[in-house]
Amino acid sequence: MQIATPYLMFLGDVPDALAAKTAYGIKDWRPEWCVGQMRLPGCKADLGIPDLTLPEALAKGCRTLVVGVVNAGGVLPDHWVTEIVAAIEAGLDVASGLHVRLGAVPAIAEAAERRGCRLHDVRHTSETFPTGKGTKRAGRRLLTVGTDCSVGKKYTVLALEKGMRDRGLDADFRATGQTGVFISGRGVAIDAVVADFISGAVESIAPEAAPNHWDLIEGQGSLYHPSFAGVSLGLLHGAQADAFVVCHEPTRTTMRGVQHPLPTIRQVIDLTVQLGSLTNPDIRPVGIAVNTQALPEDEARALLDQIATEHGLPATDPVRFGVEALVDRIVADFPEA
Fold first, then answer.
1. Which residues fall within 8 angstroms of residue 306, CB to CB, at 6 or more apart?
2. Rounded distance, CA 3 to CA 64, Å?
3. pLDDT of 125 over the 80 cut
4. Using an 8 Å Cβ cutoff, are 198 and 212 in contact?
5. CATH classification of 7-121 is 3.55.50.30, yes or no?
6. For the segment 200-237, what is each residue's pLDDT rounded down to a tens digit?
7. Beta bridge pairs of residue 95
8. At a CB cut-off of 8 Å and minimum separation 6, what does 259 contact?
9. Mind listing the pLDDT tens digit for each residue in 85-97?
10. Based on the number of CB atoms within 10 Å of its own CB, is 324 exposed (0-12), middle (13-18) or buried (19 or more)?
């Protein structure tokens, strides 16, 4: 899948920044591709880049409208279709990470065929995957897991990829969600894979490798989330993780979109080890990544110190304070073969 750049980021009228996390992820990790944003009245997200009309975006060389939002069920609201069709009529390709296929919407499909524009459904793949086998394979793998969804699992592995490469380690980000695929240009949106093949798909994107090579696998959901635990478990088994980092947002009391209480970091560590040992008996935690965006710096640092002491693991906010402590722990726990 080759998506033409640069992008015009479509945010619709999402109710908060988390609902536009795909757009934020692309802007944060590929800012040079994002020429502007298009928002509808009532939109509560702002990427901090110019608001552009379609003519303005075309004048800046934009080639693809990216539907940079997520929502429950990955649906495409009817009132966005008019805006997407207008972008196609203006000559833009369209890329989306939603569950609904762009071509399944008649008005979009007809406009794209008439104008000769390309539709990219990043969440869907034409590849087929085997069932997972859990057979030991060479190479090393790290998976991010969470106390909830939308807590920073993708940002943590992207920061680790940079931090580990800066340290001279052989490490690659492996995308398992639509935003990660936009950022890396490869991977698979694992929540769109038929359940029987989730672990096999992860084995395919993080296959056998050189003994000291690290695949840094983007986690999804949470083993404790009633909506997404099945995806999280398939990821854990397919990753055959040697190491994992727990990602956490400290201001939440319930998990996103449900009324279930947030599990503790300790509960997530213990359950990840228990379930992950099925495909790797030596799985172990190497750190905790805490999204401290809602906290002042002094409170954030104090909380990180408290969490590190409580769990005997390095704790950091990868975006705010970097990942050096996590890389130190990985190097110490996994000396080169």
1. none
2. 7
3. no
4. no
5. no
6. 999 999 999 999 999 999 999 999 999 999 999 999 99
7. 66, 120
8. none
9. 999 999 999 999 8
10. middle
Section 55-73 average pLDDT: 91
34-55 pLDDT, tens digit each: 999 999 999 999 999 999 999 9
294, pLDDT greater than 90: yes
SS3 sequence, the chain?
Answer: CCCCCCEEEEEECCCCHHHHHHHHHHHHHCHHHEEEEEECCCCCCCCCCCECCHHHHHHCCCCEEEECCCCHHHCCCHHHHHHHHHHHHCCCEEEECCCCCHHHCHHHHHHHHHHCCCEEECCCCCCCCCCCCCCCCCCEEEEEEECCCCCCHHHHHHHHHHHHHHCCCCEEEECCCHHHHHHHCCCCCHHHCCHHHHHHHHHHHCCCCCCCCEEEECCCCCCCCCCCHHHHHHHHHHHCCCEEEEEECCCCCECCCCCCECCCHHHHHHHHHHHHCCCCCCCEEEEEEECCCCCCHHHHHHHHHHHHHHHCCCEECCCCCCCHHHHHHHHHHCCCC
- pLDDT, one tens digit per residue, over 150-182 is 999 999 999 999 999 999 999 999 999 888 888
CATH code for residues 140-333: 3.40.50.300
Instruction: Calculate the dihedral angle through the C-alpha atoms of 218, 321, 283, 151, rounding to the nearest 10 degrees.
Output: -40
What digits encode the pLDDT tens for the residues 307-316? 999 999 999 9
- Percent of the chain past pLDDT 90, that is, above it, reads 85
State how far the Cα of 7 lies from the Cα of 93, in Å rounded to an integer. Answer: 10
Please report, for the chain, the start and end positions of each structural domain, with discontinuous segments joined by +. Answer: 7-121, 140-333
